């Protein structure tokens, strides 16, 4: 089923393509600091890695020239520790709502994802290839929520029938919709299929308000800055704070504690933050212990 219209602030053609969205908020005022740090475990070919997501494609093992297809990936870090080690660390530090993302449909990545869930039952969400056929397997393995993106789109348009089938299957309270996006023509468009394909769905207050009726949380990667440690997309964070009526987590570009503060202020305390490549546990310079301390301070 193709989308036809998303929210009152959008206008759509017969094919469902959004042609305009409400304007981004012009300014941001500091707000109540209740933001949370959401940890992550990204898995590729069974290993915990940090990859620049926009370089991840369905590549063959070898190209026509004989070189490795994986050479097109930009990998920031590969861990020698299993996914369960990170899950146990997050459990020890009482961090909830973290994201386990399987960056591939191979059996090794699936096993690693399940291993993380079993190490911290109820404390982690899982995404990556989630469909109506496998969602309950992950819930039963210990995921608090399943995260879904590409499955909800058919030929680049939102498939409401699939969305409702997932809601009926796992329950609204266990579903997270990933609206990871890229900028084009001054708007933020949801991208699917390993972030390589622009959908016809643009972010707006109307978009998020409608989708909020079918899920518990939203996850938004700023794909233009994700994995690059270039700083956060404050414009996107600000927009999410204005548009989302339910909990929303932003990921992309965070590299310092100052960046976390920028998310807190731009998001008015209503947008949670994920940090990946910048953390020392993933080969970066930002101390994980400092981020946990920052997180704890927000709850005081």
What keywords describe this structure?
300 residues, alpha/beta, eleven-stranded mixed beta sheet, three-stranded antiparallel beta sheet, 8 helices, 18 strands, 26% helix, disordered N terminus
Task: Describe this entry's structure for a reader.
With 300 residues, the chain is of the alpha/beta class. The chain has 8 helices and 18 strands. The longest helix is centred in the middle third of the chain and has 13 residues. The radius of gyration is 18 Å and the shape is globular. The chain starts with 10 loop residues before the first strand and ends with a helix. The N terminus is likely disordered.
The number of E-state strands comes to 18
Terminal residue distance: 46 Å
Order of helices and strands: EEEEEEHEHEHEEEHEEEEHEHEHEH
* Strands ordered across the widest β-sheet: 3-18-17-16-12-9-8-7-4-5-6
Gross morphology is: globular
Oligomeric state of the chains present here: single chain
Radius of gyration: 18 Å
Summarize model confidence as the mean pLDDT. Answer: 85
Q: Helicity, in percent?
A: 25-40%
Structural class from helices and strands? Answer: alpha/beta
pLDDT below 50 for ≥5 consecutive residues: which ranges?
Answer: 1-33, 58-71
Count, helices: 8
Q: Which percent range describes the beta-strand content?
A: 15-25%
Q: Note the main sheet.
A: 11 strands, mixed
């Amino acid at each position: 089923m193709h989308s036809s219209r998303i929210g009152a602030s959008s206008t759509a053609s017969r094919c469902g393509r959004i042609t305009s969205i409400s304007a981004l908020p012009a300014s941001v005022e500091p707000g109540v600091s209740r933001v949370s740090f959401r940890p992550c475990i990204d898995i590729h070919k069974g290993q915990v890695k940090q990859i620049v997501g926009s370089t991840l494609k369905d590549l063959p093992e070898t190209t026509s020239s004989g070189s490795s297809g994986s050479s097109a990936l930009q990998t920031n870090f590969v861990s020698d520790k299993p996914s369960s080690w990170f899950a146990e660390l997050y459990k020890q530090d009482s961090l909830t709502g973290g994201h386990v993302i399987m960056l591939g449909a191979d059996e090794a990545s699936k096993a690693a994802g399940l291993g993380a869930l079993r190490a911290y039952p109820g404390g982690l969400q899982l995404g990556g290839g989630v469909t109506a056929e496998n969602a309950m397997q992950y819930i039963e393995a210990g995921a608090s929520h399943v995260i879904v993106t590409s499955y909800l789109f058919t030929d680049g348009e939102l498939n409401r029938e699939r969305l409702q089938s997932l809601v009926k299957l796992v329950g609204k309270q266990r579903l997270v919709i990933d609206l990871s996006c890229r900028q084009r023509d001054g708007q933020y468009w949801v991208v699917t299929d390993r972030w390589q394909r622009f959908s016809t769905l643009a972010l707006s207050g109307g978009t998020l308000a409608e989708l909020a009726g079918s899920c518990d949380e939203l996850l938004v990667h700023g794909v233009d800055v994700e994995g690059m440690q270039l700083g956060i997309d404050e414009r996107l964070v600000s927009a999410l704070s204005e548009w989302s009526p339910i909990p929303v987590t932003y990921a992309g570009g965070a590299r310092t504690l100052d960046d976390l503060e920028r998310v807190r202020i731009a998001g008015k305390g209503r947008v949670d933050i994920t940090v990946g490549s910048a953390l020392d546990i993933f080969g970066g310079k930002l101390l994980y212990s400092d981020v946990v301390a920052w997180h704890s301070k927000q709850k005081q």
